[in-house]
Amino acid sequence: MADAVAEAKEEIRRRLADAIRDMEVETAADTARVITTAGWFEMELLETAVAAGMSEASRLYEEGEYFIPELLSCADAAEEATKIFRPYMMGQRPEPKGCVVIGSVAGDTHDIGKNIVALVVEAAGYDVFDIGRDVSAERFVDAVIEKQADALALASLMTTSMNHMADVIQLMERRGCRQSCRVIVGGKPISPSFAQKIGADYYSASAGDTVRILDEIMKTHGN
């Protein structure tokens, strides 16, 4: 009997991850309802199903099989499942792995990629404070200090706004929070060499990359 239940749980986990990867919003929501109705919700599902499905979607995007519309549909499916899980998360959520502030820098009104990264990072077990798009350096640094963030993730999809990432890092240094908070930068025009040039700690090419980087940060620098 126990084996049958374990097999059923694994099957439903795979079904949810596949629905997210395959952009099946209604299937993802229905599967999440089956999980909660059966009393099978566990926090690890956010990583093994929701984040796993989004990681697969990110991989397909990186390989050129998916484009922005497909990635958005995957994110919609993940968000629908997460909405259904959220009331059940309150009593089960373990201590967060760490705290992350994320946003798109001043002058950049795009937030598609940033929203996907925020969703995947939250599903991976981090406290995520998404402060939006077109965010000034002052607002970023205020949030880092207020939340005592372990990491700051800066996004830019525009060459005209990417240099504002350097403004944020410089202000962090002036206000004394740079040493305690690692900076991750990403977005279409961003490169590892640009990240190094402006003094960022890490360059991220995808949502999955960001989770791996955060895990490394917490392993190396976490309390």
TrEMBL record:
Residues 97-223 form the B12-binding domain. Gene3D superfamilies: Cobalamin-binding domain, Methionine synthase domain. SUPFAM superfamilies: Cobalamin (vitamin B12)-binding domain (SSF52242), Methionine synthase domain (SSF47644). Residues 3-97 form the B12-binding N-terminal domain. GO terms for biological process: homocysteine metabolic process; tetrahydrofolate metabolic process. Keywords: Cobalt, Metal-binding. GO terms for molecular function: cobalamin binding; metal ion binding; methionine synthase activity. GO terms for cellular component: cytosol. It comes from the Bacteria. PANTHER family: METHIONINE SYNTHASE (PTHR45833:SF1). Belongs to the methylamine corrinoid protein family. This is Cobalamin-binding protein. The lineage of its organism: Bacteria, Bacillati, Bacillota, Negativicutes, Selenomonadales.
